[in-house]
Amino acid sequence: KLLTVAIVGATGAVGTKMKEQLLKRNFPIKDIKFLASAKSAGKEIEFGGKMYKIEEATPEAFEGVDVALFSAGGSVSAKLAPEAVKRGAVVIDNTSHFRMDPDVPLVVPEVNREDLKKHNGIIANPNCSTIQMVVALQPIRQKLGLKRIIVSTYQAVSGSGMSAIEELREQSKYWDDRKDIEAKVLPVKSETKHYPIAYNVLPQIDVFTENGFTKEEMKMINETKKIMHLPNLHVAATCVRVPVVNGHSESVYIEVEKEASVQDIYNILKGAPGVVLQDDLNNQVYPMPLYTEGEDPVYVGRIRKDLYHPNGFHLWVVADNLLKGAALNSIQIAEAMLEDNLL
Ligand code: A2P
């Protein structure tokens, strides 16, 4: 079966990767539409050796579309996803807008593929940091149970889009006067204050909520519980932006229900879907974002048993946030739906 696909936000950091993934994975495409803002309409975009005209994302643009992949910001999804569904498309939305809606499945195929069956036209792709964490933790949870997660993230600028990548590139030139760097985009474009990301780390991703956690941190907390179907799981997150172009890293502390050894965790993660173990201390082998860029899997290393809690473990988890954290997971959702006759 061949499908008509639309990419909304086709010129963006994630949209560009969606385009690449569709080709790389040989997604069965009949026709494809590249949608963006009015400012990009009319510009040309290359796909599989052919040139396509970018169109403005309007309700009418979804006429005849089977699958619409959205990554143009929450307000665009809020407005246009229902319009696409009205015209018969299935929407796979990479923004946070619909994620916690009880009528919208929030899916990482390795973890909760079954939830796709309950869709009403819109499927949400989870937050990038959440995706890589649940891929690593689901196999452990299945064997040992899971009671608590405490995670600190080291997130790349690509998660904030093209303008943040450009900001890091530009600021990185200012070695001598780095305290005077002018910042415009990070930590959050709409915020009052901006701070340099080059030569710095920013303990704020997205805006603050009433409880002192940021929205990004609350996404990790709430989305993890929804995806894993563990409403009582205790999760805490501290999300930090670091001067890395692409690839999110996470220090993850977990408490499982059954006592286990580090070897047990190795055995569980070896060959687990979507996971690659990189953990060999004698040879200084551990995952790093510079080397996971462009790769599909979620890499896990530095696995240690906590020194005090018999059921506590520490892990280091790294993945390409634009791929498994966004574009790849979206395409995998579409592939799973095709296989399960949901498209
Ligand atoms: P455009 O390039 O025309 O502004 P990123 O996350 O890298 O910043 O990319 C955001 C993507 O969302 C871009 O493709 C951008 O298109 C698109 N976009 C932004 N605002 C709108 C809008 N109002 N309608 C449709 N697409 C939009």
Structure description:
It is built from nine helices and 14 strands. By secondary structure, it is α/β, with parallel strands linked by helices. The chain folds into two domains: 3-125 and 326-339, NAD(P)-binding Rossmann-like Domain (Rossmann fold); 130-321, Dihydrodipicolinate Reductase, domain 2 (2-Layer Sandwich), CATH 3.30.360. The strands form three sheets. A six-stranded parallel sheet has the order 5-2-1-6-7-8, with helices on both faces. A six-stranded mixed sheet has the order 10-9-11-14-13-12. β12 (275-277), α8 (289-292) and β13 form a beta-alpha-beta unit. α4 (128-144) runs parallel beside α6 (215-228). The protein starts with a strand and ends with a helix. The model has no long low-confidence stretch (mean pLDDT 98). Residues 9-13, 15, 36-37, 39-40, 57, 72-73, 76, 161-163 line the site of adenosine-2'-5'-diphosphate. One of its GO terms (biological process) is isoleucine biosynthetic process. This is Aspartate-semialdehyde dehydrogenase.
What is the CATH superfamily label of the largest domain?
Dihydrodipicolinate Reductase, domain 2
Count of helix runs: 9
Question: What is the number of domains?
Answer: 2
Largest sheet: 6 strands, parallel
Order of SSEs: EHEEEEEHEHEHEHHEEHEHEEH
What's the helical proportion of residues? Answer: 25-40%
CATH architecture of the largest domain: 2-Layer Sandwich
Question: Which runs of at least 5 residues are low in confidence (pLDDT < 50)?
Answer: none
List keywords for this structure.
343 residues; alpha/beta; Rossmann fold; 2 domains; 6-stranded mixed beta sheet; 14 strands; 29% helix; 23% strand; binds adenosine-2'-5'-diphosphate
